[in-house]
Every structure is written in structure tokens, then in C-alpha cells.
Amino acid sequence: MTQVIVHLTAGADDLADWLERSEALHRVLRPHLPVDYEGTMRRILAGGAEMALLHEAGAPRALAVFRAFHDTANGYRFYIDDLVTDPDCRSAGHGAALLGWCEAEARQRGCDRLTLESGTHRERAHRFYFREGLAITLFGFAKPLR
Questions:
Q1: Which of 109, 57, 52 lies closest to 84 in space, CA to CA?
Q2: Which of 41, 74, 101, 118 is deepest in the core (most CB within 10 A)?
């Protein structure tokens, strides 16, 4: 089946349709997202994030939420908030294709670095990232405030 990648921004005409189609897949990675998924994602996209959705015949197989911005540590950084593939379709090349799209997009924008964070418990994802040429370059620290 043919893989197609749709690039979505806050102003996309078909945003509501694609958000409805992709919600279940996104919740595989982020089950804690609020019940109002569309509203939440519209706010996130309005704040500067973008989404790339890989689908086959309209069925979402992988998605990435990302943003590009300048910071003092990385220069112009392409940061991937979320990268998830359909668990029923893993090892079919969807994640690699979408990550490759993200890298090409970052290069086209002139970004200095592509970065993402991954929970310490996601060992299978880490193996994938290593295979795709990513390296662990720092530790992330967090402190819950609520």
C-alpha cells in the first residue's frame, strides 16, 4: 500500500478530519491527553507545533508532532514532541519513513539539529532511534509542578 505523509498546521483546511482520524493512534503514546483531543491539539498547533501524519488509504499508521525554534543550546532546533506508530503495523517502515520526512523537513528549514526525548522505559523505541542514527546526547530532568 502507498504511504502518504500529510503536513498539518493550525490553519489546515482539513485539520478537523485528520485530527479525528489520528486521535486513537496518538493516544497509543499519550493516553493522558484530555477528552477534548481536537481542542487540545488545536491549541498546541496554534502555539507553533505542527503535525505530520503518515497514512495508507486514509488510515493513520504513524504521526509526529514537532516544532522548529531557536535556543541557546542547539541553535535552530527541530524538536519532535511525539513520534508514534500503529502497534499493529510496527516494523513496516512507517516510523522510519516519518522520521526520514522529519529529518528532510528539518534540513529544508535550515535547522542545526533534530532532537527528541523518549521516556526511559521505552527501550524498544530507543533501539529504533539508535538504528536510525540518533544518539543520546543529554539527560532530561523534570519536576512535576501539579
A1: 52
A2: 41
As a whole number of angstroms, the distance between CA 108 and CA 116 comes to: 18
Pairing state between β 50-56 and 3-8: antiparallel
pLDDT in tens, the chain (146 residues): 799 999 999 999 999 999 999 999 999 999 999 999 999 999 999 999 999 999 999 999 999 999 999 999 999 999 999 999 999 998 899 999 999 999 999 999 999 999 998 887 888 888 988 898 989 888 888 888 89
Rg of the chain taking only CA atoms, in angstroms: 15
> Of 39, 29, 65, which is closest to residue 50 (Cα–Cα)?
65
Q: Which three cell numbers stand for residue 122?
A: 521505552
Rounded to whole angstroms, the Cα distance separating 64 from 82 reads 5
Whole-structure pTM value = 0.91
Please name every residue paired with 59 in a beta bridge, in sequence order, or none if there are none: 56
In angstroms, the Cα distances linking 42 to 46, 49, 85 are 6, 9, 21
Q: What's 88's DSSP letter?
A: G
Residue 125 φ then ψ, to 5°? -65, -40
* Nine cell digits for residue 136: 543520546
